[in-house]
Specification:
The protein has one domain (about 1-35). The chain is about 0% helix and about 30% strand. The protein has strands at about 1-5, 20, 25-30. It is elongated.
Length: about 35
Amino acid sequence: MKFIHTKEGTEPAGHYSQAVVYGGVVYVSGMLGKDPK
């Protein structure tokens, strides 16, 4: 299992990963967008 974190995406508001790779499948979470301004 590999946890994916990128500074280019929205920071999770809790103990969440932006995505997880497991068994050759990428599972992504539904995070809200954020205005970078």
